Amino acid sequence: MSVAYNHSAFPCPPVLLKFPALQWKTSAFRCQFVRKGRLSIKTAAASSFTGSGAEYSEVLSTPRKKKGRKVVGIDQDELVDPKFLADPDSCFCEFQGLQLHHKICDPESEPQDLLHDETVSDSSRQKEKLKFPLILLHGFGASLFSWNTVMKRLANVSGSKVLSFDRPAFGLTSRVDNPSNHAPAGSIQDTKPLNPYSMAFSVLATLYFIDFLAAEKAILVGHSAGCLVAAETYFRAPERVAAMILVAPAIVAPLTSPKKVKENNQEDGSKSDNINSPAFSLLSVVSKFSRFIAQMVMQFLTGMASMVNSLYKKALSAFFRSSVAVMLVRMVIGKFGISAIKNAWYDASKVTDSVLEAYTRPLRAKGWDRALVEFTAEMVSSSPESNLPLRLNEISCPVLIITGDSDRLVPSWNATRLSQAIPGSHLEVIKKCGHLPHEEKPHEFVTIVDNFLMGVFDRTESQPLQAAT
Length: 469
What we know:
Blueprint: E1 29-33, E2 39-43, H1 57-60, E3 70-71, E4 74-75, E5 91-95, E6 98-105, H2 112-115, H3 122-126, E7 134-137, H4 148-158, E8 162-165, H5 199-212, E9 218-223, H6 226-236, E10 241-247, H7 258-272, H8 278-320, H9 323-343, H10 353-360, H11 368-381, H12 388-391, E11 399-404, H13 412-421, E12 426-430, H14 437-440, H15 442-456, E13 457-458, E14 463-464
Parallel strand pairs: 7-8, 7-9, 9-10, 10-11, 11-12
Antiparallel strand pairs: 1-2, 3-4, 5-6, 6-8, 13-14
Helix pairs in contact: 4-15, 5-6, 8-11, 9-11
């Protein structure tokens, strides 16, 4: 069958003549070439082909949809606002221009689940209500989901409100496009904007939630890197912290005690004062001059090291804020994310699909990758305002430290050293437990917390007792 071709009426390449089974209708179609010699035909009005054209269906089909980029099975081209991922009991409040995702759990008037819970003592069911609320601070890469198993139990054993929230860059708390220039509405323009991914912002958010609960003080419960937020909050406002519970704390314990170093220096000084010979006097002058030169050299080297360190941090920070870093973050989480979650457990077989879904749900939120990169860049480029390891001996509030004996991320021996550095702190080690005692051993965890609160606070007046020495 020949095809009538009117070049002047509707120009079409002669290659169409190679398809004799098709009848061309110039009033209904427009044709164009596609790469690799395939022909694409788009309809302009309702029409049809006559003849046996089924064998050309692949040639005439519309282009395929571009395959989406996926991270742990989540299509990164279909990200949504975090609020669309929230649970029925999720809450959002605005703070410094961010929508902070949080949950609040109230104690039950008659906690029925405790009546069948063998891990809770009879005395805890009859104790007076604790007036201090508990604020739960999750670790790096986690969210408030990490506390879901124990929130209700903690509220019941304490008889007080329990609040958990997603720190900026994690969970379902909103992200910002340009954190370095982020300034909430109504703020003074001359005020330097506070990076929402900084430690200072997390501290202010923690203090905000204490006020949000209309409480004078709160008990801060931190896990892993959340313990850093708890400790920094204490040093920022010690009068607002009634006690701290540090779970698998990612706080580096000091290796040496400043007191021992001071004693050794005093002993050396006492020996030198007993030597009064002329030779020693000359040696002393030479020694002082040498120390002066050495101090000048050390100051120069320290200045050079600080400059190099500053340049290194700036370069590293610039790299983290590049598009390459975003791509690498996606690759790393896509390849190692699931295995990292399982590695945090002593028994990885207990990591259910629901647990994995909750941990990976924030990867569906818009801007999660950029926010994580910005958080890491801020953590690298800025140094803590307080030298935390050297100030641990200044903590005077009651402190409970809980760790798993098989923690592969933060070893239990670090928790032991930490308990020795914090005066009066109490250490509990849970057997056959990894980095997540509150998820892997929730019954033991709640029992330990309950006993700590019972021992530290007088439930009648809810006033903290002195830390045990």
